[in-house]
Design goal:
Helix content is 65%, strand content 13%. The protein starts with 5 loop residues before the first helix and ends with a helix. Helix 9 packs antiparallel against helix 10. The relative contact order is 0.12. It is elongated. The protein has one domain: Outer membrane efflux proteins (OEP) (Up-down Bundle). By secondary structure, it is of the alpha+beta class. The strands form three sheets. It has a four-stranded antiparallel β-sheet, with no helix packed on it. It has a two-stranded parallel sheet with strand order 1-6.
Length: 447
């Protein structure tokens, strides 16, 4: 009768046990088809579904509308008005209030239709200053929208890379468990031949049990990272996502720190926002100074009225009149009331300039830190590769010594753990290098 090899049986049993356990605890549906996504696709979906970005777009659109509203202040103010009235006779109490008055006939129906206009000519350039302030506020809102997009992309990248790292861990752990199952079979064969002790078999089984538990933890990490990514992408919680990005961080061309710093001061969203806020405070200082300025404008008043009571003698006929002229005024009280306002506006400008310099220092620190951390992550990748080669060779030597009864089972288990650990470290170093690169691009304003 045909029998399956024991290794195949053990692998099938393990797969069945793991699938049963994972299906009970993993909220990600196994019935839903997995969705393979690259990093560019992740960014596109994140930008499309982000509520923060939509709110920032609304703010930007409102700022654009405020600029259009301010430009309308240049147009003349135009009013149209009219009234119609009925007047009673004029009662004159020539013999006192207690006696009957004399009634004098008057024109009973009175009406007036008219329009007036006022066109501002000069007001300390306040209208143009207001328009410029609205434009700068709109530019600030637009920069904040771009910064929000960059932050959302960086957050999506973090979740995406966490998911990718956990999936790599799972693959490494599954392969290691299969290898340990094979090694357990070898130990049992040696035990039957009296070469090793029963305790060696128990130690291997204990290690396998811990590794299976760790695999469950990794699967839970995958489920959590997947759900975080689904939320930011606007996908259902149960939608499994498969990262397909295969970026090699060591192939990325690295510029010098000075070049990155120059690029940051040219593209950084935070730097532009701080710069525009300083310009806004300078405009507000000019606007406050304009309070001590004459106000000049053109005006016109045109109306059709009945009766004619504008000039003597009065007449019951209709008449039309137009008046045009120039209005000018000067706020004398502003000479002394504007002094404390000027001091406050000047201090606010100096404060904003100081905050701008602080933002420059902050950007310099962020660029330097992310630049150094990215180079450090690249070094970690090289060290991890070297450690893998050493751990593999060490494990081979320890296993031969164990089979020759010159090494203990603890040495063999430690060597196997080191092999797995070094592979974890390489995967972690590669993921960290990718994240550091995206972090650097975020600081530079290129994400």
């Amino acid at each position: 009768m045909f029998r399956f090899p024991k290794k195949v049986v053990w692998c099938c049993l393990f797969t069945f046990r793991f699938t049963l356990l994972f299906s009970q605890h993993n909220p990600i549906s196994a019935d839903t088809a997995a969705l393979p996504l690259s990093m560019d696709e992740i960014w596109e979906k994140a930008v499309e579904s982000s509520k923060k970005i939509k709110l920032a777009e609304f703010e930007t659109e409102i700022g654009r509308g405020e600029v259009r509203e301010a430009k309308f202040e240049r147009l003349p103010e135009w009013d149209v008005r009219g009234f119609i009235e009925h007047a009673t006779n004029l009662a004159v109490y020539s013999r006192g209030l207690l006696n009957r008055p004399e009634q004098h006939e008057v024109i009973h129906t009175l009406y007036r239709l008219g329009t007036d206009l006022y066109l501002p000519v000069y007001n300390g350039n306040k209208i143009n200053l207001t328009i410029d302030k609205k434009k700068i506020r709109h530019e600030i809102l637009d920069e904040q929208r771009k910064f929000t997009v960059s932050e959302i992309k960086l957050q999506a990248s973090s979740y995406y890379l966490d998911l990718q790292r956990s999936m790599i861990y799972r693959e490494l752990m599954v392969n290691d468990i299969i290898n340990q199952e094979k090694q357990l079979e070898e130990i049992r064969h040696l035990l039957r031949n009296g070469v090793v002790l029963k305790s060696d078999e128990l130690r291997i089984e204990l290690k396998l049990s811990n590794q299976r538990l760790m695999l469950v933890q990794i699967e839970n990490d995958i489920a959590i990272a997947n759900q975080k990514l689904n939320i930011i992408l606007g996908l259902p919680d149960a939608q499994p996502v498969i990262p397909v990005e295969k970026t090699d961080p060591e192939a990325i061309a690295l510029n010098s720190y000075e070049e990155y710093l120059h690029e940051a001061f040219h593209n950084s969203f935070e730097y532009h926002i701080s710069e525009k806020k300083t310009a806004l405070k300078a405009l507000e200082l000019r606007y406050t100074r304009a309070n001590v300025s004459p106000k000049v404008g053109l005006y016109g008043d045109f109306f059709l009225s009945n009766p004619q009571i504008f000039l003597f003698p009065y007449s019951p006929g209709n008449y039309m009149l137009g008046v045009m002229g120039v209005k000018a005024s000067f706020p004398v009280s502003a000479l002394y009331m504007n002094v404390p306002k000027m001091k406050i506006a000047s201090l606010e400008l100096k404060k904003e300039e100081m905050e701008h310099h602080d933002t420059e220092d902050k950007i310099r620190q962020q660029v330097y830190e992310t630049y150094v951390r990215f180079k450090e992550a690249l070094v970690r990748i090289g060290v991890a590769r070297t450690n893998i080669a050493h751990a593999d060779e060490n494990a081979r030597i320890i296993k031969n010594n164990y089979l020759n009864q010159t090494a203990l089972i603890t040495d063999l288990l430690d060597a196997d753990i080191q092999v797995l650990q070094t592979r974890f470290e390489l995967a972690s170093a590669r993921i960290e290098a990718q994240y550091r690169y995206y972090q650097l691009q975020n600081v530079l304003g290129n994400l």
